[in-house]
Design goal:
By secondary structure, the chain is α/β, with parallel strands linked by helices. The chain contains 9 helices and 9 strands. The structure holds adenosine monophosphate (AMP).
């Protein structure tokens, strides 16, 4: 006898409906976890769902390609939208509901209030993508209000984004715990990303140099190198040799304020944004300078 496939989670498209689900669960004493995404789900997103399932009694996933975080020349129109396939991937994972609002629901006529992002949003992505974090913080705050969960799950992959959101939550006293989970990678090391579907086979091969460059930084720090400028140069060389088409930045920063470091004396983040073909990819790795090295 064939088994019934697990059923897909129900989709909720109004703010009123998702709020009711969350508020009721909390009133019943359940810890609620929220996983905000733009869909085109992959194993990275699913790891956030699993973390929420482990730590919470009820998990809500949001799928919304947020127009306000894309620049005018970015990929908003062609960003992959795969709701049916996403629901299939979530089937059997124990997700209570998927909140998939329309743009109209999130930004009705007359909408005009935006978050002014914190200082940590200024460098790196803030320079390369003006207005991006204004859109991100605004939509995330709206999602936190629509679905007032106890915890929200984000990926280390978008490191600066997680730092920006942690700061916003602290500055605005938002009663939600921010959980940042490890980056999920392909077997060869490429960080999973919804944008990887844009890559041709050759670009996919060249995109691997982001990870190689991060691993080189890790290796150099492991060997005792403390000169961040030297490591940055080696990271750029690796990216160029690996065939990326352009580098927005390849740097070593303080994990808290994302200021560029001259010397590595404690924890540091190696941070990269580069293009393979037209596809812009970001990745990062936590580096730890051990005492004895
Ligand atoms: P996105 O749909 O790209 O906006 O991502 C939604 C969430 O998934 C964000 O918190 C991302 O940081 C996280 N995420 C994206 N890619 C990965 C990955 N490879 N591993 C872990 N988390 C990820």
């Amino acid at each position: 006898m064939s088994q019934m496939p697990p059923s897909t989670p129900p989709v909720v498209s109004t703010i009123a409906a998702i709020r009711e689900i969350v508020v009721r669960a909390k009133a019943a004493g359940r810890r609620v976890g929220l996983v905000p995404t733009m869909g085109a789900l992959h194993a990275g997103h699913l790891s956030l769902v699993e973390a929420s399932r482990r730590e919470c009694g009820l998990t809500v996933v949001t799928i919304f390609v947020n127009p306000t975080q894309f620049g005018p020349h970015e990929d908003f129109a062609k960003y992959p939208r795969t709701l049916e396939a996403d629901l299939e991937k979530l089937a059997g994972m124990g997700v209570e509901a998927v909140f998939a609002p329309t743009s109209q629901q999130m930004y009705p006529e007359g909408f005009s209030t935006y978050v002014d992002p914190p200082e940590v949003a200024r460098p790196w992505e803030g320079v390369a993508r003006p207005g991006h974090f204004r859109g991100v913080t605004t939509v995330v705050l709206k999602l936190f209000n629509a679905a007032p969960a106890d915890a929200a799950y984000f990926g280390h992959k978008d490191y600066q984004q997680s730092a920006v959101i942690r700061r916003m939550v602290e500055d605005f006293n938002v009663p939600i715990e921010i959980r940042v989970m490890p980056t999920v990678r392909e077997p060869d090391g490429l960080a999973m990303s919804s944008r990887n579907v844009y890559l041709s086979l050759d670009e996919r091969r060249r995109a691997l140099s982001l990870f190689q460059s991060l691993k080189l930084a890790e290796q150099l720090v492991g060997q005792g190198e403390r000169d961040a400028a030297l490591i940055r140069r080696r990271m750029c060389q690796t990216l160029e040799a690996g065939g990326v088409d352009s580098i927005d930045y390849a740097t070593i920063v303080d994990p808290e304020n994302l200021a560029e470091l001259n010397r590595i004396e404690g924890p540091a983040i190696a941070l990269i944004a580069a293009r393979a073909g037209k596809t812009r990819l970001i990745d990062n790795l936590l580096l730890t300078a051990s005492e004895e090295a």
